Amino acid sequence: MTSPTAAVQAPRVPEAVHRRRWWILGTLVLALLVVVLDNSILNVAMKTIATPAPVGLGASQSDLEWAINSYTLVFAGLLFTAGLLGDRFGRKWTLLAGMLVFGLGSLLSAMAASPGELIGYRAVMGLGGAFVMPATLAIIMNVFERHEQPKAIGIWAGAVGLAIAIGPITGGLLIEHFWWGSVFLVNVPIVVVALALMGWLVPDSKDPNPGKLDPVGVLLSIVGLVALIYGIIKGGELADFTDPKAWVPTLVGVLALVAFVLFEKHSRHPALDVTWFRNKVFSASIGVVGIVFFALMGVSFFGVFYIQSVRGYSALEAGELMLPLAVAQLLFAPRARLVVDRFGVRATCAGGMLLVTVGFLGYAFLTATSPIWLLIVLGFVMGTGMAHVMPPVTVAIMGALPREKAGAGSALNNTFRQVGGSLGIAVLGALLSTVYRNGVQDHLSAVPEQFRDRAGESIESTLGTAEKLQLPALVDPAKDAFIHAMHVVSGVSAGVTVLGAVLALLLLPAKGAAAGGPGAPAAVPQGRTDSGASTAKV
C-alpha cells in the first residue's frame, strides 16, 4: 500500500487534464450555474405564477411551496445515491445524464398548463439536478492537485453567488417582457451549451475499487431521505407538525435512516462508511452546512414578499435588490482560502456565521418605510458571511475523505445542505405563517366568511382579497402583520446561526488539512498502479 507521503508526492492528475483544468472548472461552473440559477429565478417569478390565468397559473401559497419543494424532495432524496453511482460508474456520465434530464424538465416546466403539472415537472428537474451537483465537486477533486483544490472549491462556491446574482435579474427581465414559462425555458440553451462543452473537455473519473453494490443500503437511504423531507415539508405546509400527515412520514424517514446507519455499520460492502462521522471535523462541517442553510433558506423565502408585496417593487427591482448578497459571495468566496491561511478554519467560519447573524438581526429591525439602502447593506453583509463559511467547510468535508470517494462526500455535503434548507423553509415558513395569521386575523371581520380562511393564508392572499373585494383598509394591517412575522423569523434565524458559530468554534480545527484527506489516496492517470487512486481517463 502506498504510504501517505508517497501518495502526496506521486503524480496524481494526467498532464493533459492538468493543462486544461481551469477550462474544465469553467464548464463545471456553467453546469452548477444552471441548477442554482433555476431556483433563484423561480423565487422572483412566484408572485407572477400565483396570478390567475392567463398571466400566471393561479397557484396558491401551497402550490408555490410545492413548486419549490417537489424539486427539493427529489433532489435531496437522490443526492446520496447519485453520488454513489458517479463514484461507481463514472462522474462524467452521471453529470451528462443529469444535465440532459434537467434540461428536459425545464422544457416541460415552461409548458406546464396547471400548478399540478408545474410541480410534477419540477420534480423531473430535481432528478436531473441530483446527478449534477455532486458530480461537479467530485470532478474538481479529481482534476486539481491538492494545493489548488481550496482555490477551485472557492470558485465553485462563488459560482453559487454568481447564479444568485444572475437569477433574480434574469427572472425579472423575463417576467417583464415574456410569459412566466420563460424562466424555465431559459435553461434549455444553457444546458445544450454545457452538454457540448462537458462532452469535449471533462475527463471521466471513478472509484477503481467500489466493491459490491449495496441495494438495501441505497433503498433505505432513499426511503429515509424522501420520507423525512416530505414530512418536514408537509408540517410546514400545514403549520402543524403534530398532524399525522406530517409526523407519520417524518417518523418513517427517521426510522429508515436509523435502519440505514445500523445496516451500514454491519455491512461488508456499505454504501456509506459511517465511521467517517467519527471525524469531528467532518461531522462539525456537515452540521455547519445544515445550520446555515436552515436559517438562510427560510429567510430567503419571505425576502421576495417583503420586497414586492410590502415595499411594492417589481420583479426586476426585487432581483436587483438581491444583487448585493450574491456579489459579496462572488467577490469573497474565491478568496476565503487566503483568510483561512491567515486566521484558520475555526475563526474564519465562526466569523462568517456571525456576519450572517448580523444580517438576520438587521432584518428584525426593517419596517415598511426603512431606507432601501439598509436592505442592500444587509444583503452584502450576509453574502460576505456566507462566502467565508461555505468554501472552508466544503474543503474540510472533502479533505476528510479519500479522493476516490469524492462523489459520496460531495453528495453528503449537498444532502445536509438540502435537508437543512428544507427544514428552514418548512419550520420557519410555518412560523411565519402562524405569526402572520394571528396578526391579521382580527382585521378580517369585513371579509365574507367564505373568503376569510383563504384571505388569512399569506400576505399575497390578503392583498389579493382586499383588491378583489375592494377592502383597502386591509392593506396596512396585512403589511404590519407580515413585518411582525418577518421580525420573529429573523430573530429565530439569528439564534440558529449563533449556534452554528459556537459549533464552529468548538469543533472545527484552528488550521485546515489539505483537501483530499491526510494521507488519502490520490487520483492518478489511468494505467498507474498507485493503490486506491481514482481512475482518470483523458
Automatic annotation (TrEMBL):
<protein>
    <submittedName>
        <fullName>MFS transporter</fullName>
    </submittedName>
</protein>
<dbReference type="InterPro" id="IPR004638">
    <property type="entry name" value="EmrB-like"/>
</dbReference>
<feature type="transmembrane region" description="Helical">
    <location>
        <begin position="481"/>
        <end position="508"/>
    </location>
</feature>
<feature type="transmembrane region" description="Helical">
    <location>
        <begin position="213"/>
        <end position="233"/>
    </location>
</feature>
<keyword id="KW-0812">Transmembrane</keyword>
<feature type="transmembrane region" description="Helical">
    <location>
        <begin position="22"/>
        <end position="46"/>
    </location>
</feature>
<feature type="transmembrane region" description="Helical">
    <location>
        <begin position="153"/>
        <end position="173"/>
    </location>
</feature>
<dbReference type="InterPro" id="IPR011701">
    <property type="entry name" value="MFS"/>
</dbReference>
<dbReference type="InterPro" id="IPR020846">
    <property type="entry name" value="MFS_dom"/>
</dbReference>
<dbReference type="InterPro" id="IPR036259">
    <property type="entry name" value="MFS_trans_sf"/>
</dbReference>
<feature type="transmembrane region" description="Helical">
    <location>
        <begin position="372"/>
        <end position="398"/>
    </location>
</feature>
<keyword id="KW-1003">Cell membrane</keyword>
<keyword id="KW-0813">Transport</keyword>
<feature type="transmembrane region" description="Helical">
    <location>
        <begin position="93"/>
        <end position="113"/>
    </location>
</feature>
<keyword id="KW-0472">Membrane</keyword>
<keyword id="KW-0046">Antibiotic resistance</keyword>
<keyword id="KW-1133">Transmembrane helix</keyword>
<dbReference type="Pfam" id="PF07690">
    <property type="entry name" value="MFS_1"/>
</dbReference>
<feature type="transmembrane region" description="Helical">
    <location>
        <begin position="179"/>
        <end position="201"/>
    </location>
</feature>
<feature type="transmembrane region" description="Helical">
    <location>
        <begin position="345"/>
        <end position="366"/>
    </location>
</feature>
<feature type="transmembrane region" description="Helical">
    <location>
        <begin position="245"/>
        <end position="263"/>
    </location>
</feature>
<feature type="transmembrane region" description="Helical">
    <location>
        <begin position="119"/>
        <end position="141"/>
    </location>
</feature>
<feature type="region of interest" description="Disordered">
    <location>
        <begin position="518"/>
        <end position="538"/>
    </location>
</feature>
<feature type="transmembrane region" description="Helical">
    <location>
        <begin position="66"/>
        <end position="86"/>
    </location>
</feature>
<feature type="compositionally biased region" description="Polar residues">
    <location>
        <begin position="528"/>
        <end position="538"/>
    </location>
</feature>
<feature type="domain" description="Major facilitator superfamily (MFS) profile">
    <location>
        <begin position="24"/>
        <end position="512"/>
    </location>
</feature>
<feature type="transmembrane region" description="Helical">
    <location>
        <begin position="284"/>
        <end position="307"/>
    </location>
</feature>
<feature type="transmembrane region" description="Helical">
    <location>
        <begin position="419"/>
        <end position="436"/>
    </location>
</feature>
